[in-house]
Amino acid sequence: MLLRSTNKYDPAVSAPYLKTEPRPARKHKSKVTKYRAGKSKPWKAIKGPGRVTKFPGGFKHSWPVGLTNPNGAYCYRRALLQCLIHLPAVYNYLGSIPHQSDCERRISACVVCGLQTLVNKYWNEKGRISFPREAVAILDKAIRIRGHGSAMFPDAETNNQGDPHDLFMFLHDQLERNEFKWSTHLDRLFSVYRSYAWECEDCGGPNQGNDPVSVYIPIPLAGSQGSGHDLDDHIEKWFYGEENRTCNVPNCNGTTVGTPKEREIDYWITQSPEVLCINLQRQAYNHVTGVTSKIHDEVPYPEVLDLSEYTEDESELRYRLYGVVAHRGKGADEGHYIASVRKHKAGFATISDESLINYATTSRLLKPGHSKQNFDTALLFYLKI
Ligand SMILES: [Zn+2]
Ligand SMILES: [Zn+2]
C-alpha cells in the first residue's frame, strides 16, 4: 500500500527549497516596465492578478513573424524564442517584472533586457513589416556576454547549433538571477514542485518528503524505444518510479544505514507552474559502441493535458498546448529546428527561422506524423487553463 493520504510535508525531512520562516515584506512594488530603447510603444502588460491565458487586445499584428538566423546554426534559438514569445503568461511576466528602469547594464549585455526588448518589439512595434532583426541580434550578443564560461549552456559563445533546452535553462537562470531575493513570480511561472512517498517493505515505515524543484518535466526516451507510448504514458512514469533510496525510519532493521534499496515511489505535484515545459530527451548513449544516437520515436501529445490525478488533493490541473519545438536530423548538434506556435485566434503556425512554413489547424498539428519532413518533437510548452 502506498501513502497517498499521508503525503504531507514532514519538517524532519530536509527540503532545501521550503522556506519555513515567513518572508519579509518586499521593498519594491511591481511596476510595468518602460521600454527605453528605440521607438516602440510602451509595453501593454495585462493588469491585475490571476491567470494570463490571452494577450492584451490592440496588437497591430496578430500573426507570427520569423526571426532571422544570422549564421544558419541559430535555428535552435529561434525555435525556442518563438515558443516563449507566443506564451501570454511569459509576455505578461516580462512586461511586469521590475528590471529595465533599474538595470545598469547596456542592453546588449543583459539577457533580461534583451528578452524584454525582443518580446516587446515583436508584438508592439509600430508598422512592423519584417522580423525584428536588430532585437534578436542584441539578445544573441547578451547571451554571448552573460553566458561566458557557462557550464549550463556551453554554446552561449559559439556559432554552433546547440540544444534549445540548454538555452531554456540558461534563460531561466538569467531571469532568476534578476529577481529579488524573495520574489515568487518566476517560480510561479515555470517551477514544478514534487513531493514523494513510499512505504518501507522492511519496517513498514513511511518515507516522505519533497524533491528538488524542477522547471520542466523530463521525458527520457532511452529505454522505452519503440514502446508506442504517448505523452500521458511517459508523464505517468514521472509520478510512479522505482528508485534506490534509503529508509529514513530510525532503527529500521531491513536497511543497513547508507545502503539504498530499490523502492516503489509515488510522486505528487504540490505546486504547479503556469507554463509547463516538457523535454523529450532523445539522446541514447550506447555503452558498447560509445556512440550517442537519436531516438526518433513518435510521442503523440494532446492539446489538453490533464494532470489532475497527480495533484495532492486531486484538484483540477489542466494545461493547453501553446508551443512545440521540433528537430530534424541525426543528432542535436546537426539538422534543423523549427517551432509551431499557437496563434492569437485559432490554430497553429509553423515557423522556420525567418519563414512561416504553414498554418496548421490544431488537429492537424496533433496528428502523429503531421509533418512529412521527419521532424521529431523536442520540447512542448503548455499553459495552465
Ligand atoms: Zn537588464
Ligand atoms: Zn524501513
List the helices and strands and how they pair.
Elements: H1 75-85, H2 88-96, H3 111-124, H4 133-146, H5 164-178, H6 185-190, E1 193-199, E2 206-210, E3 217-220, H7 231-239, E4 240-245, E5 261-271, E6 275-281, E7 283-285, E8 292-294, E9 304-306, E10 318-328, E11 336-342, E12 348-352, E13 355-360, H8 362-366, E14 376-384
Parallel strand pairs: 3-6
Antiparallel strand pairs: 1-2, 1-5, 4-5, 6-14, 7-8, 9-10, 10-11, 10-14, 11-12, 12-13
EC number: 3.4.19.12
Keywords: Hydrolase, Protease, Thiol protease, Ubl conjugation pathway
Domain USP: 65-385
Helical/strand content category: alpha+beta
The succession of helices and strands, N to C, reads: HHHHHHEEEHEEEEEEEEEEHE
| Beta-strand share of residues | 15-25%
Which stretches of 5+ consecutive residues score pLDDT under 50? Answer: 1-41
Count of structural domains: 1
Overall description:
This protein has 385 residues and is α+β, with helices and mostly antiparallel strands. The chain has a single domain (75-248, 259-384), classed as Cathepsin B, Chain A. It has eight helices and 14 strands. Strands 3, 6, 9, 10, 11, 12, 13 and 14 form an eight-stranded mixed sheet that branches. Strand 11 (336-342) and strand 12 form a beta hairpin. Helix 1 crosses helix 5 (164-178). The protein is globular and about 70 Å long. The two termini are 33 Å apart. It binds zinc ion (2 copies). Residues 200, 202-203, 205, 247, 249, 252, 254-255 line the site of one zinc ion. Its EC number is 3.4.19.12. One of its GO terms (cellular component) is nucleus. Belongs to the peptidase C19 family.
